[in-house]
Design brief:
With 372 residues, this protein is of the alpha/beta class. The chain has 13 helices and twelve strands. A seven-stranded mixed β-sheet has the order 2-8-7-6-5-3-4, sandwiched between helices. Strands 9-12-11 form a three-stranded antiparallel β-sheet, with helices on one face. A two-stranded parallel sheet has the order 1-10. The protein binds pyridoxal-5'-phosphate.
Amino acid sequence: MAITAKAKELRAAGEDVIGFGAGEPDFDTPQHIKDAAAQALADGFTKYTPASGTPELRQAAAEKFAADNGLEYDPAQIIVSCGGKHSCYNVMMAVCQPGDEVIIPAPFWLSYPEMAKLAGATPVILETTDETEFKLTPDQLREAITDKTRVVILNSPSNPTGSVYTPDETKAIGDVCVEKGVLIMSDEIYEKLLYGGAEFKSVASFSAEHQAHTIIVHGLAKAYSMTGWRIGFTAAPLPIAKAIGAIQSHSTSNPTSFAQSGAVQALRGPQDHIGEWLAHFSKRRDYAYGRLNAMDGISCVNALGAFYLFPNISGSGMKSGEFCERLLAEQKVAAVPGVAFGSDDYMRISYATSMENIEKGLDRLEAFIKGL
Ligand SMILES: *Cc1c(COP(=O)(O)O)cnc(C)c1O
């Protein structure tokens, strides 16, 4: 967000800045979803709803888990929050106590460690690199678990790397957590954004025990381009769901009433737009992946999900902060330094922008590299 702000500032000053910083799709929210929210407003659906979300949306979310993941949840186990980020925060607050440890593989979505700290817990960062496609190994996880470990955060497909655990890898991570009696917070917000035949399987779906150890975080921001609507939800074992609901009830109360009506339509209405968006994302990903790997001093593993690439820039001799600052100053290209995600040898390139921008931005990146 800081990079985006700096890029905005430069743009306002008349500079032609190419933004690779976007953390949201460049497509509009599908019309049928907007119509449902507009209709709800017109119908006067403008008052408080139950603090944990409308019964209709909790039911629609439960149906989503049944249809997409083969997971059975009672709507009472679903809590709707003000965005997936709020869902993550509520989870940390519900399950962590001071002294607890939260295992977070790096590169991580930058809010996770801060949320753990806000809950009084200690983030334990486990480093991964492009050599394992940024995936935690079961041995690495087993070694890091102590008697203080409360929860492990899993985010596949990943922001910022785009990496996706295979079903076998997901199960292996889940097996360790079940064996050790540790919870998993599985952030599945990019579930539907997959490329190159990648398969997603929720860690909760391998057995009843896996489900009992998992809190799924989901939301509509990414696959429905509803980032500003602020609707996310969790699916959790009932006692944890109740705790999340209680925390929310005493902090924010319900998510926006008519946004929830739009969310029901998103989950239950036509899903055709996702295929169309994926075709665009996939073309851009292929192009950017090819270009990046052709540049001296840059190497990039391919991403199988989300809309990010996470190239290794260590061949430039710079750390990510300096690299991205200079790239913005000298070539007017905004990308997020990997240090923000706990990995200082990389930068995040979002391809949630037009092909024209991607071509132009990568031309400039190439010129920047050649000039070093
Ligand atoms: C975008 C995102 C979310 C949720 O975003 P909201 O806008 O709060 O719904 C959650 N996790 C990750 C990893 C994300 O990138």
